[in-house]
Write a structure and sequence with these properties.
The chain is built from one helix and two strands. By secondary structure, the chain is α+β, with helices and mostly antiparallel strands. Strands 1-2 form a two-stranded antiparallel ribbon.
Length: about 70
């Protein structure tokens, strides 16, 4: 089955059994899609991925700073 969509930008917050909190950001390299897109579509996707990555980094830093500020059990 051929997919009609792809994940280009993703952010996950994971919690494992050991109690470790992990954040994961995924950005797809869209260079190979360039031949299938108009110049305008490609430029738009580049902008969305760039700006989305910046915002997701801000979210990651915010979560990390809040966790670091918490008093953890010994």
């Amino acid at each position: 089955m051929k997919r009609e969509e792809a994940i280009l930008l993703a952010y996950k917050v994971l919690y494992d059994r050991a109690g470790k909190l992990i954040t994961e950001r995924t950005v797809t390299d869209i260079e190979q899609l360039k031949t299938y897109l108009t110049d305008e579509e490609y430029s738009t996707l580049q902008s969305v991925l760039r700006e989305g990555s910046i915002k997701l980094d801000e979210i990651h830093n915010h979560i990390e700073s809040n966790l670091n500020a918490r008093k953890m059990k010994d």
